[in-house]
Batch of 2 targets.
Target 1
Amino acid sequence: MRDALSIFLIDDDKDLLRATKQTLELAGFKVSAFSVASEALGALNADFAGAVVSDIRMPQIDGLQLFDRVRKEDEDLPVILVTGHGDIPMAVKAIQDGAYDFITKPFATERLVQAVKRALEKRGLVLENRALRRAADQARDDLPLIGQTPTMERLRRTLRQIADTEVDVLVTGETGSGKEVVASLLHRWSRRASGNFVALNCGALPETVIESELFGHEPGAFTGAQKKRVGRIEHASGGTLFLDEIESMPPSTQVHMLRVLEMREVTPLGTNEVRPVDLRVVAAAKVDLGDPEQRGDFREDLYYRLNVVTISIPPLRERRDDIPLLFGHFAERAASRFKREVPAISSAVQRHLQGHAWPGNVRELSHFAERFVLGVEQLPASAPPSAPETGEVLPLPERLDRYEASIIREALDANGGDVRRTIAELGIPRKTFYDKLQRHGIVRSQFAASKSGQI
Ligand SMILES: Nc1ncnc2c1ncn2[C@@H]1O[C@H](COP(=O)(O)OP(=O)(O)OP(=O)(O)O)[C@@H](O)[C@H]1O
Ligand SMILES: [Mg+2]
């Protein structure tokens, strides 16, 4: 720790300053010397990684005033005062006020070195504790559910009410709207919080893998199953099982899952053993499973089993009043992560915040905030279609046309030019999509390139 920490040494007697600096450096400390207190104060801040050693008697700002200002900046920053004989009562008072130590002139080198060493040790601990506390705070706020619109207030209330019940929950919402945030809050606000929160993305795993992931298996249950594997369901026992993208669960797995939900027991592959599980299931879907068209081959009985309580998270465009709050939060977070200042918000940024459709919802907004803080955001220069800057008012069909083009551009932009995702988001057939690109003169590859600003 000693390496990382340093001493600010202040004395108006330049010879003494040089000599003391040398003494401390010989003892292995890093020292910055100042002959004027104001200079030292200018270089200090609340997280200063070190301690201050200052003479008391100095013109302009003296050692006691310096101590006073340092204490206001950070009361845990150790200040050691160096005093002449006549100043001892003053120094004693300073100690009572929280100064770390005082040393009377002339002093033995060892006395100073020991005092500095202890002060730095103490400082090291304080800074370490602060860092830990900050990390803990951040971890706790890692998944906050920000929002002050009535919808979000209501959502939070509902979550509080049901978090600690045993009921299974279905969470629906568009991509990036906060389904995982909600699922994790349901876990953290419940008595199950001490158990595991086990997430499984049903859309990301091939059909052959998903069953053994969920139910576990014994050695030799199938080709390649060499070792016994405890399934995610058992792993979540006592905690919460989060089944993400449940709409993509293969039909055969759905049958098995239904049984788990009904019986609260699991049979690992390759066994006849039935093991009880104490489970709370939270499932998330991007589509409305209640609608037979959107449900596709998702089993109706499983839907009804999951649908005891459904929480629908509205898309961001339906809670626009939360955008500034969320944007501010993400910008602050990005600024501290990238060690930058939050830049001033230009009117183009403001227009974008208010006018953009945010098809990628809160995730898209958080990426936008990060690019904004990094200064790599390039907003399209074009004005929003509904507000032609020339003042001309276009006929309705033309306005609709422009609006459609801007929606397509936004979707392409949000999806980094990925056609499959864009089409899924727009909910139109592939052919229609390409027809529209052509009609509006939209070049898809440009959007893939614009993603380079993304982090
Ligand atoms: N209300 C909110 N307050 C703060 N952060 C939020 C909020 N909603 C979402 N986020 C953040 O936005 C990002 C996307 O949220 P999340 O992963 O929960 O979305 P999702 O609905 O699960 O998306 P997908 O369907 O794409 O998996 C995360 O980083 C999350 O922390
Ligand atoms: Mg998710």
Target 2
Amino acid sequence: MSRIKVNEVFETIQGEAAFTGSPAVFLRLQGCPVGCGWCDTKHTWDALQEHETSQDIIIAKTEDSPHYFVSDAKNLAEMVAQNYQAKHVVITGGEPCMIDLTELTTELLAKGLRVQIETSGTFEVRVHPRAWVTLSPKIDMPAGLPVLASSYARADEIKYPVGNARDIEVVIEQVLQHVTPSKLLWLQPLSQSKKATDLCIAAATQLDARVSIQTHKFIGIR
Ligand code: SF4
């Protein structure tokens, strides 16, 4: 039976990439060894025993914290279906693919929900075949974990965060090497920066990609 560590559960609007605008329940899982310097969920990196707490406390929390609850797949899917109205579920992190998500994605789909995974691609993606996989490879990850070829192959869409001109050079190199033309390809400026947005627009034109704006940040929601 799976032991899933959940840092946060909340309902909002998906602000990025193909499902932009979709009301969604976000399940943020605990644990990530990737170590991106600009990560805005650093509180999910470690899963210390002392931070384990109850489901009720996590569901009620409104501020970032390293606390999490542990659930199995069946109970977690049941809880999402019963407590939230959105029909789209986003499993994010942390790095959700550190664990096998086959059972959880299967349970959620069986409840008539649509399921999306957001992953850095550094761990094998183990999900139901109908789960939508958003691969977000990070540039110069301090932990030096490679993005797996199997992650590129499984991805339904690929979304590169871009902060500066050097990121764009690396992204173009990676796209030409790993991304087949059939994949939905997005370039996403970091931190709503005008400079990064201009770089993304220029490169998207060159690569026939799309620009993903973090729309939720412009309207001040999570
Ligand atoms: S992969 Fe995601 S959660 Fe992990 S460090 Fe990078 S941005 Fe943060």
